[in-house]
Amino acid sequence: MDADKSSSEKLVLEFKEDTDLTEMMRRRVSSLQKTGQKRQDGERLLLPHEAVHRLDFPVQELNFSRWYFSLSGHGRVTITGISQHWTPDLTNLMTRQLLEPIGTFWRNAEDPEDSPLKCLEADMQEFGERIAELAKVRKVMYFLFAYKDGSTAGNLDCTIEFIPEK
Hints:
Jelly Rolls, six-stranded antiparallel β-sheet, three-stranded antiparallel β-sheet, 2 helices, 9 strands, about 35% strand
C-alpha cells in the first residue's frame, strides 16, 4: 500500500445489521421448533447469539486496507462471510455457503477494559482480502456476527477500510 494515499482515497464501510433478514431467519428456527420438523440437510440455522449484517459496496474494484473495530467491555465477536450464491429471499442458508477464514476479535474478562482488542491478525488480513475479491462481483455481501462472552451488538463498532482501484 502506498504511504502517500490521502484519506479521501479511502473507503470506510460499516457493517449494518439487517434486522429484517435476522428476524426472517429466527422465524425459520421458530417454525421448525413449533412443527417438530428438522432442518434441511446441510442447512445452517441462526443461533440465538447471532445476527445477520450486510456490507453494501458503492464501488466494486477495491483493495483491502484495514479493519476498525471497537468493543466496549469484554467479549468475543466472530464474523463469518456468506458466499454470493445465497439468495436469502429464495433459499435457506446452507453450511457450504459459509466462507473461510472467519474474523474473530475479543477482549478477555481479566483484561482491562481499555486494553486493545485481540485478533488473529493473519486471518483478519486474509478475510479482508477475500471480502475485497468478492466485492468485484457483488453490490452487497452478508455476514453472520456471533456475539459471545458478554459482547452484544450494542457494544460493538465494526468497519472495514478499502482503497478503491483506479
